[in-house]
Design goal:
This protein is of the alpha+beta class and 550 residues long. The chain contains 24 helices and 14 strands. The strands form 3 sheets. The chain has a 6-stranded mixed barrel. Helix 3 runs antiparallel to helix 18. The longest helix is centred in the last third of the chain and has 39 residues. The two termini are 33 Å apart.
């Protein structure tokens, strides 16, 4: 009371807020509830949106690498081989970096999965059996069985719940997997067998390889062939398109081209080299198109060799964020993809997971520093191999922007509602100033300064804004704490605001003190500003006119 007597503006502001000396003034209560509801709604919505973004990111990052390191030949992505980059050693170096939780090879693809219940297209991914850091994010999603593949040489797999339901699979059942081969290779083979043998159809080529030794000069126990004849054969071979040649043709042409290049400097053909040339030329002439086409078609069957896998686990992938339909050991996946013989041990890339995906620091620069330089031209890679690094924020860039834009738009809409509420409070203050204009005139006549008069309404705004913001935070905490019960009650009457069918998760929430304080402070500021306008007008009124008015 002593403080109130010393501060006339504060004392009158409190009296005006509760003029009838009741527990609450109706007008004051309406203002407080308006501010509190605005703050509470804004905090609840932003907390749920923030929780949703965090939940979805956690679900995505459970099976998505934070960085993918891969190579391209200048036009398309290529696999990593031990001969070119020693990817196993590179994985160990990446694993030893600070902030790196784990590094592992990437190998994935598509296949047709079949059981007694039907056949569907699936996406599969490979796991390193003893890489616990790679397995740890997946373990919480495991519903039945295990992710333990032993040494990784057995034909075992873990399938998603969705795939298990579609194919009627249980633990111990077998699934028949037919890999989807390279569409380009299959199309190339199909286009090739529609045409005759390239070598036999080229009359000039056949004549030149059969007549190469006519007019040859004997020398040193061998024969020297004219340089123009060798160059003519090599020139014709270079015009052939390898993708349009049967394998037997391609092997024979490679043999002839190598012999021509070796003896182009005037080196005599030894009897063995001459016999090899003549046998190769005779072999080309004896090729049977039907047999060669049959070999080409058979190569397609070998390229997409089916495999039977036993189900040892079933995991639940997040709704709307489906991961791979099937996981299998790395060695089995390499066979399925076709990385055998000359491609044995190849992988598609290297995945890196960080301890904190949102704070990568300079990890990308440090990864680039240890990558080997493979840009030199080779026979298989004329343009060399070039590294590229793909972060998860780039992979899910559009999705990330969508969530962020939704939060911004929701914040904008709800802030507009708070502005409208502030205008309503301003209207209430105008009404109160009109009702109290005779009292204000008396105060002015007794010597009250304009600052004292403005202080009355400014203090009302401060009190309403402060109490409303505090009540709004408390109300928001209460709603967030009982959000699931509120959702269940609304769902019971058909007004579910967050259906499980759409999101696949319960209502999430992010308790961010900064967000709470920011929204409460902005509401407080808007209410204070809304009270200053009528305060300024009231302080400038003419007391004589106000006393004479009815």
């Amino acid at each position: 009371m002593k403080i109130l007597r010393r501060n006339l503006s504060l004392m009158l502001a409190i009296r005006y807020l509760n003029p009838l000396r009741t527990l609450f003034s109706i007008i004051t209560l309406i203002c407080l509830v308006g501010v509190a509801l605005g703050v509470a709604v804004l905090i609840v919505v932003l907390s749920v949106m923030g929780g949703l973004q965090k939940e979805m990111e956690e679900r995505v990052l459970a099976f998505t690498p934070h960085y993918v390191l891969a190579q391209s030949d200048g036009m398309k992505r290529i696999s990593l081989s031990q001969e070119r980059c020693e990817w196993e050693s590179l994985v160990e170096q990446l694993q030893a970096m600070p902030n790196v939780a784990c590094a592992y090879p990437q190998l994935e693809g598509q296949a047709f999965a079949q059981s007694a219940a039907g056949r569907i297209m699936i996406q599969f991914s490979a796991l390193q059996p003893h890489n616990t850091a790679q397995l740890s994010p997946l373990l919480p999603m495991l519903k039945e069985g295990t992710f333990d593949f032993g040494e990784g040489f057995d034909q075992e797999c873990v399938v998603s719940r969705k795939t298990a339901n579609a194919l009627g699979l249980n633990l111990g059942d077998e699934i028949h997997l037919t890999p989807v081969g390279s569409i380009d290779e299959v199309a190339s083979i199909y286009a090739m067998i529609q045409n005759p043998l390239i070598t036999q159809s080229n009359k000039e080529f056949m004549e030149r390889i059969n007549s190469l030794f006519e007019g040859a000069t004997p020398a040193n126990g061998g024969e020297i062939v004219a340089l123009d004849k060798l160059e003519a054969v090599a020139r014709i071979i270079r015009t052939f398109t390898p993708d349009k040649m049967r394998k037997s043709e391609l092997d024979a042409c490679n043999t002839l081209y190598e012999l021509a290049a070796t003896h182009a400097g005037g080196l005599p053909f030894s009897p063995e080299d001459k016999k090899l040339w003549q046998d190769t030329a005779a072999g080309i002439a004896a090729l049977d198109r039907d047999k060669e086409d049959g070999k080409a078609v058979k190569s397609i069957n070998e390229m997409v060799m089916p495999v039977d896998l036993r189900v040892v686990g079933i995991y639940q992938a997040p709704e709307n964020m489906d991961g791979p339909n099937l996981y299998m050991p790395l060695s089995i996946a390499q066979e399925v993809v076709g990385y055998s013989n000359e491609h044995a041990g190849n992988v598609m890339g290297i995945c890196v997971r960080l301890e904190n995906a949102h704070e990568p620091g300079d990890i990308e620069a440090r990864m680039k520093a240890i990558l080997p330089d493979n840009t030199a031209s080779t026979d298989k890679l004329p343009l060399g191999a070039h590294w590229f690094i793909s972060p998860w924020t780039q992979t899910f860039e559009q999705w990330h922007k969508l969530i962020a834009n939704e939060r911004i738009m929701m914040n904008f809409v709800l802030s507009a509602i708070n502005v409208i509420a502030s205008f309503c409070i301003m209207a209430v203050m105008f009404t109160m100033s009109i009702q109290r204009k005779r009292e204000i005139a008396v105060l002015q006549a007794l010597g009250a300064t304009p600052g004292k008069i403005m202080g009355i309404f400014a203090w009302q705004g401060v009190i309403i804004g402060l109490l409303g913001a505090i009540l709004g935070i408390l109300l928001a905490l209460l709603v967030l704490y009982y959000r699931l019960e509120i959702q269940a009650a609304l769902a019971a009457i058909g007004l579910d605001p967050f259906p499980m069918e759409a999101h696949g998760i319960t209502i999430p929430a992010e308790y961010d003190p900064i967000t709470f304080g920011k929204q409460a402070f902005s509401a407080f500021v808007m209410v204070v500003i809304a009270s200053i306008v009528p305060a300024f007008i009231s302080a400038r009124q003419d007391p004589a006119k106000a006393l004479r008015s009815n």
